[in-house]
Structures are given as C-alpha cells and as structure tokens.
Specification:
It is a single chain. The protein is of the alpha/beta class. It folds into three domains: about 190 residues, Rossmann fold; about 120 residues, P-loop containing nucleotide triphosphate hydrolases (Rossmann fold, 3-Layer(aba) Sandwich); about 200 residues, Rossmann fold (3-Layer(aba) Sandwich). Helices cover about 35% and strands about 20% of the residues. The protein contains 18 helices and 20 strands. Strands 3-2-4-5-1-6-7-14 form an eight-stranded mixed beta sheet, with helices on both faces. A six-stranded mixed beta sheet has the order 9-10-11-8-12-13, with helices on both faces. Strands 17-16-18-15-19-20 form a six-stranded mixed beta sheet. The radius of gyration is 26 Å and the shape is globular.
C-alpha cells in the first residue's frame, strides 16, 4: 500500500504516518527514512522530538537526505516511512550541506520516489502544505514551492491513499485507510473548534449556526488574555502569538467553557517563515489545535462560508492486540541476541564538584580525592567491554583510564559533553544569587532558558540524544562504556524511561557511578530498554 500524507505545521501528519506504517508492517521490518539535514538547534530539536515520538514502535532508522534509489538497497517486503518529501526536495534543490541550485530537482525527486515505491511492499510519505499562502517570493523560493506541488501531484496520482491532516483532523481525499483504522466525525465534548483561512466567514458561520448573540463573542488581541467565561472566542491565533512571543504554554483546553466555540485562523501552511517568532507561532498554533481536537472538540473548517466537519486523527487507532491476534499478526518481539549493554558512567569528582560550582564546558581535571575514590572502584565494572566513549573532557578521559586501564581506542564524542553554563561556569549559587541574570535564569523553566554565554538544558539534551543515536546505529559492539556527565546521563534516562517522571537532578548519579542499560534495537527510535543503578544497589528496573 502506498500512502501520501500532507498538511500544515503541527497538524499531526508525522504521528499519523508513524501509526499507519507500523500497522501496515504487521510486525515485519519497517524503516524510518529520515531526510532532514540539521542546520541549527531548531532542526535538532525537531529531530529529537520525532525520535521520541516513534520510540518503541520498532522502526529502523535510515538517514537519507535524498537519492533513495542510489543510497538504499530496499527490502522488497519491508515497509518504509519517509519524513519528509519537503526536506528531500530542499536537499536536492539547494544542496545537503553546501549551497547549490538545481532547477530540475523536483522532477528528479518525483522520479526517485516513484521508482523506490515500486520496489517496496508499503511506502508512506509525509509532505508539507507550503502552497497555501499568498506571499510573493523570489524565483528560487517560488521554484521550490512549485517543485513540491509537482511532486505531490505526481505521487498523489500513483498512491493508493492520499490524506490531508488539518488541525488535528484527517481528510481522506483518495482511497481508504488500512484495516484497523477508523475516523470519527463526532466530538467527545460540546466544544466546537472552527478554523479556516483569512476572511472565509468563520465568525459569520459561528453566529448563524450556533445562534450567538451580542456580548457572547470575545476577540483576542496579541497583548491580552482571552476571556474564558465568554462562550465564543475569536482570533485565537492572536493569543497564541502572544504565548509564542513570551515563550509560554497556552491555557489548557479544559480551561475553556465546556460549550466553548473557538475560532482560529489557520496559519500553519505556506513556506516556512524567515522570522523565528513566526516559525514558533506557526508550530505552536498547529500543535495547540491538535490538543483541542484531541481533547474532544468537534472541528469544522470553513471555506467560502461553507463548513466541513473534519474527521478526528485521535480516533485513528492501531488495532487492539486481540484483533491483531485473531488476524494472525503478533506484536514484534525483542530479539535477545540483539540486546546490548551500555554502561553510562559519570566522571569522578573534581574541585568544581567538591565546591558545588557550575561546571559544564570548563575542562576541570579530577581532584585528588576524586582519583582515590575511582581507584577503589577499579574492577567493579568488569573488564570485558568492547567499545569505549568519553565526552573528550579531561575528567571523563581520566575516569575512563582509572576505571578500565589504558585502552587501544577510546572514541571522543563532544556532543556527550555537559551543558555549557556560560557566564556561570566556575561559580556557585552563593556567588551568583544576587546576580539579576542568574535570578532570571533559575526562575521558571530553566530547561528551556539559555544561560548567558552558554546553552539551555534542552539544547544539551538534543545533542546528547543525537550522539547516543549515532552510537547505537554505527557501533555494532554488544558491550559499550560511555563516560560522560550528570546532565547527559539524565537526558538519556528521561527519554528511555518517561514513565518514571523524574527530573534531571533526580536521575543524576553520584560521581564515579551510573547506570547499566540493556538496550534492544539499533537506534533510539526503535529501542526497548531496562536499567539498573551501577554499582548495583537493588533490583533491576524496567
């Protein structure tokens, strides 16, 4: 089965594609073809989120920016999910790393996708709705937009099913969904969500259809909060822009009246904006509309004054285990022969640790006391390890040598370094507590706030997870030692064991200690894991 899925930013298309492809695979090998070449932290965060979204779904990740048929030898019985055609065209048209301009890239990409789809059993492709804004662009940007439209038309004609994702809803334009999926057109609450383009008659539809009276409509602005007591809230997107500008989450869906009518302009389509705030606004709007729809709101899209009810993506569900069993389809089981052990250790103590100083990128060596403690642990972790990694900082390299002796090859992976605390490096809370910049940083969500001159916890997390994913995909060793830092270890454990609901500081081990992971899978996207504290202090955790 060949499926094409398109939609605006944050519309739920990637999530739906992952469910569809995993279901089509029915326990057989399925592959995630990642096309994005990360160029900045924003791209890395997006990649990290996608890795998290598909974790545990059994995907084997293949990084292929373009030229599928040249770079991938396909499994003819396999299921492939490509996310996204938009990024693939950008790579082909403008270059994967260095800038070029290939005016005929769209024709080449379309031919490549068609040929690859013919070689595999199931092929699901995600694309982006970038053709619905009215801006005038330069020749190359317009060529890119026209190119993606060409690819979408060509592939839509060839695919069995074509789906558009809109504000948490799904419209099947061609074909049908795979067996086991269903779409409901009925909301689970009295709340109504009305979306559509500018000046399409959304407010007029709400007034006529729901009999709204004067005083029952509140119009949002970018400098105020919505009145949650009013039945109808118009121009919700303006309020969301304020939230994006202030880097905060909008109100929870259940904060509105149960019978609320929410009107929002659909700003999620079109060429990705140059302005960072506009990009953030667009993504936030798409994801918030998904939350509203997922909370049970009935979604209508108004076009030229006519309202169309949208099917709910959250009602497209994987078949129940019992249904799969009746059909002779078993859930994929972990292959014990593919299980690897990864020993995640925090470096030994430094003078910074002993003085309770912020120490991230600063290259502190181990203290004398730190070295003595590690010498006492030598041999505790065993000797039959195959691969060895450090962050490259002195304290991790010294820890590796003291615990495991001199190794022929120790690979340095800089992306495993601790968070960069910037201007706060080498200073303690007592030294910083009266600093306004420090007070600003520690207030609120400092996982997302950037240290002056440094980075945020989220930025650290993205690069660390990318580094671990590379190790899993490229290193065939069954027993791997990674000596790193407290923050990176916590970031990894938070991803693998979200059900524990522990924060970064609760996961951090003591200096010279860590966790033994047993991981099944060749990438973060498809792994299953168990852990135990090391040195062992109790029963294994799962």
């Amino acid at each position: 089965m060949k499926i094409w899925i398109t939609g605006g930013a944050g519309s739920g298309k990637s999530s739906l594609a992952q469910k569809l492809a995993a279901t089509l695979a029915a326990g057989e090998p399925h592959y995630y073809v990642a096309t994005m070449v990360p160029r900045d932290d924003e791209d890395r965060r997006r990649i990290s989120r996608h890795i998290e979204d598909r974790a545990g779904m059994g995907y084997r990740t293949i990084e292929c920016p373009c030229s599928l048929t040249e770079r991938i030898t396909p499994d003819s019985e396999g299921t492939y999910l490509l996310d996204s055609a938009t990024a693939m065209l950008a790579n082909a048209m403008f270059g994967e790393r260095d800038f070029v301009y290939e005016s005929d890239a769209a024709q080449k990409v379309a031919a490549d996708l068609r040929l690859f789809s013919e070689r595999v059993k199931h092929f699901v492709v995600v694309s982006d709705g970038i053709c619905s804004d009215a801006a005038l662009y330069d020749e190359m940007t317009d060529g890119y937009r026209r190119g993606l439209a060409y690819i979408e038309r060509q592939m839509a004609a060839q695919c069995d099913t074509v789906i558009e994702c809109v504000a948490g809803g799904a419209i099947v334009h061609k074909g049908k969904l795979p067996a086991g999926f269903r779409i409901s057109n009925t909301g689970d609450t009295q709340m109504e969500l009305i979306i559509g383009g500018a000046c399409q008659g959304k407010k007029e539809y709400a007034i006529s259809h729901f009999g709204l009276k004067d005083g029952e409509i509140f119009t949002c602005t970018e400098d105020g909060e919505p009145d949650l007591t009013v039945r109808c809230i118009d121009h919700l997107e303006r309020y969301l822009r304020r939230c994006a500008a202030e880097d905060r989450e909008p109100v929870a869906p259940d904060a509105f009246r149960k019978d609320a009518i929410l009107i929002c302009e659909d700003i999620t389509c079109g060429i990705v904006p140059i302005n960072a705030l506009d990009r953030k606004w667009r993504e936030l709007t798409g994801r918030y509309l998904q939350r509203l729809a997922g909370g049970g709101a009935e979604v209508s899209r108004v076009f030229c004054g006519f309202a169309q009810k949208l099917g709910k993506i959250d009602k497209c569900e994987l078949p129940e285990k019992e249904e799969l069993s009746k059909a002779g389809i078993e859930e994929p089981k972990a292959d014990p022969s593919q299980t690897r052990q990864i020993l995640l250790l925090r470096h030994g103590r430094t003078k910074a640790n002993e003085g309770h100083l912020y120490c991230g990128s600063t290259d502190w060596p181990l203290s004398e006391e730190g070295r003595k403690c590690l010498m006492q642990k030598r041999g505790v972790y065993g000797t039959d390890w195959e691969s060895f990694y450090t962050s490259g900082l002195i304290r991790t390299k010294e820890t590796m040598e003291l615990l495991f002796g001199e190794q022929e090859t120790v690979i340095e992976e800089p992306d495993l370094m601790e968070m960069d605390f910037g201007d706060f490096e080498g200073k303690s809370y007592e030294m910083l507590k009266d600093d306004p910049a420090y007070q600003e940083w520690i207030s609120g969500d400092n996982e997302r706030k950037v240290c002056p001159g440094g980075e945020s916890g989220e930025q650290m997390r993205v690069r660390v997870l990318s580094a671990l994913d590379r190790i899993l995909q490229r290193d065939p060793a069954k027993r791997i030692v990674i000596v790193t830092h407290g923050g990176p270890i916590a970031a990894i454990l938070q991803l693998l064991f979200p059900e524990k609901n522990l924060n970064r500081y609760e996961w951090q081990p003591e200096c010279g200690e860590g966790y033994l992971l047993r991981i099944t899978g060749s990438s973060l996207a498809e792994c299953a894991a168990e852990y135990e504290k090391y040195p062992a202090r109790g029963e294994n955790q799962k």
